[in-house]
Design a protein that fits this description.
Order of helices and strands: EEEEEHEEEEHEEHHEEEHH
Helix content: 25-40%
Shape: globular
Distance between the termini: 28 Å
Number of strands: 14
Structural class: alpha+beta
Radius of gyration: 17 Å
Number of helices: 6
Strand content: 25-35%
């Protein structure tokens, strides 16, 4: 169903138009990047995994009343989505200390945070996606103060729903990134993807700190077995969705 006419190509996906101007086609690639694209490679089958996992989690969140851009999955690595104007903010929710939070604060990796930490990063590769304060967001006029509060409240709701779902899969949701957009009617919709690319996921059945990593950290840190870790996430997520559907 894909065409040669691309509306947009990012690091992980290609967006194509459809006959309906309000509906787009999102194609998930096997390309992998890390450290603001300083590290590049491929993870075989990643596009299929991320499309399937994102489709399942979007459906779960829709069942909980969260508006998303997801319409349906039409092939192994393609989904139809509502067209949205992406808000240039990456919303990061952290439940357990890991990654840049540890580097920037000195908090030990694996420490459970006293409350879910919501952070906003400017979606700009050229600037390195910098962490923004509330005042900087308002100064840049990215969103209004009310919209920023809605983003935070929605992100925290999504966090609770995803923690619940992943726990059923025996997976710990460490942290994750969200992106939002406004549709043709001005409604806020969760967009992009929710996958091992955008989440830190730890296997609750593993005790080895390295072995429990099920996400893109395996690629970032050259830990190996990236494909099998991604596939394990897919298997558990789809199995759980079939149970609760």
């Amino acid at each position: 169903m894909t065409t040669t006419e691309k509306l947009y190509e990012g690091k992980a996906k290609i967006i194509y138009p459809t006959d309906n101007p309000n509906i787009l086609l999102s194609y998930f690639k096997d390309d992998a990047t890390a450290f603001n694209a300083l590290k590049k490679g491929q993870i075989k089958g990643k596009g299929v995994v991320n499309c399937a996992v994102s489709s399942a989690l979007f459906q779960w969140l829709e069942s909980k009343g969260i508006l998303t851009h997801f319409i349906d999955q039409i092939s192994d690595n393609e989904m139809r989505v509502y067209g949205v104007k992406i808000i240039p903010l990456e919303v990061v929710i952290r439940n357990i200390a890991a990654g840049s939070l540890c580097k920037q604060t000195g908090i030990d990796q694996g420490k459970i945070l006293p409350f879910p930490l919501v952070e906003f990063y400017l979606k700009d590769d050229a600037l390195g996606d910098p962490l923004l304060t509330k005042d900087r967001i308002l100064m840049l006029e990215i969103v209004t103060e009310d919209q920023l509060q809605i983003l935070k409240e929605t992100a925290l709701k999504i966090n609770q729903y995803l923690i619940e779902f992943f726990n059923l899969c025996q997976i710990t949701l460490v942290d994750f990134k969200l992106e939002f957009g406004l549709d043709q009617e001005g409604k806020l919709r969760l967009a992009d993807e929710i996958s091992p690319d955008t989440c830190r996921l730890w296997d609750q059945t593993e005790t080895d700190p390295t072995g429990k990593i099920m996400d893109k950290d395996r690629f970032r840190q050259d830990l190996g077995d990236v494909e099998s870790a991604y596939q394990k996430v897919q298997e558990r997520v789809l199995k759980q969705l079939s149970v609760i559907s």
